[in-house]
User: Fold these one by one.
Assistant:
Number 1:
Amino acid sequence: MYSEYKKILKERLDEKRYFHSLCVADEAKRLAEKIGVNTEKAYLAGLLHDITKNAPKEEHLQIFARFGIILDDVEKNALKLWHAISGSLYVEHILGINDNEIVDAIRYHTTAKENMSPLCLVLYLADFTSSDRDYPDVDVMRSLVDISFNKALVYALQYTIKDLVDQTRAIHFDTLKAFNEAVYLEDK
Ligand code: DGI
Ligand code: FE
Ligand code: FE
């Protein structure tokens, strides 16, 4: 399925990132089934979510200029956040995928945000639990996602925020707002 997109991804991504994209697509489909989200959309969002991950800095900047994107201070200083923005623009305007939910899920797959759509949440979590992932707490994340998406969201954001603090890197407001909202929901 989606052989045209896979061909483009193969050209744009290194082998590891291409494999990661296939794994996230499969995981997004699996998670989508659990909560009644359109599985084809979830697969496609997973497949394309890192499409600009291996792009050089200049290509991100070109895309931002072309579509009038102005980065905020945190984004300016965090190159790792750029591929979510440029990737969503690439998917919408260059691949011509006219699906707001898919474009939005890709846009926020790195920071998450407040009030995420079910598809957005599925993609955010699938990026943490895909079969290629191998970080110290991956087993905890995988068991949490089978219990409660919100518990898994709290854990993923907690893990990300702790890690950023340890590395003395700035935390995006979308990340913080997503964390606060997920925590409030757990406390209810
Ligand atoms: O692209 P992937 O590696 O599959 O995963 P991703 O898109 O979730 O990117 C993960 C990276 O993004 C990781 O190095 C941490 C970084 N990141 C996530 N949220 C924030 C952030 N970096 C900063 N500076 N601030 C954030 O809020
Ligand atoms: Fe990413
Ligand atoms: Fe990813």
Note: The chain has a mean pLDDT of 98.
Number 2:
Amino acid sequence: MISVSFDDWPYPTHIAHRGAGKLAPENTLAAIRLGASHAYSMFEFDVKLSGDGVLLLMHDATLERTTDGCGRVAGHSFAQIAQLDAGSWHSAAYAGESVPTLAQVARWLIANRALANIEIKPCPGREAETGAAVALEALHCWREASVPPLLSSFSEPALRAARQAAPDLPRALLLAELHDDWLARCRALDCVALDASARVLNEAVIDAAHRAGLRVLTYTVNDARQARRLFGWGLDGLITDAVDAIRPA
Ligand code: G3P
Ligand code: MG
């Protein structure tokens, strides 16, 4: 597996958000397949632990919005979550789509030569446990891959635990706001990248990050003109829902 650094940056400029944005049920294999059909080769998705410690793809800490179940993800075993319909909420075409595990998605991505941005999205109170579990599972699932998944999180405790479990896996700190300490926070976690909301990113921050040896990603940009402006500022990676409208370079 290559070691990711500023100079050895293996990731493409365009990353599909939650698989295929809003065109398919988020964080499912169907979404990732759809994103790939639009020529995307890297996928951002959200990962958390079930009650019994299985890593699965889901954004919310509760089941209601994206499945026909209810209650906390952490209050259910993976066997229970695997029975749920994670597609009907989106549209009838996806009825019966299931919640995938990280291991299932890793298999699909590696087999299809696609890359991963795993957003560690812990359920409240499970930050370090989830960060360590994601890092160890990523090491195992990607053990024969040449390019490792990029781990990212808004949770600094999760990224710290990921670093402890798998120091060589690349990390990006997600920030919704940029305060004076953004660089120090990235450095404290030995991140290879800053992953900032497009609402707060600007050219000066991208320049400062590059001078500090960090790549810069941004989320979630669905407007082609805004995407062009960001790339003009030197952006390295754009996370988008608009896989049908924004063509990967
Ligand atoms: O990883 C970037 C982006 O996914 C962060 O926000 O809420 O869509 O997971 P969210
Ligand atoms: Mg996410």
Note: Residues 4 and 170 are 6 Å apart (CA to CA).
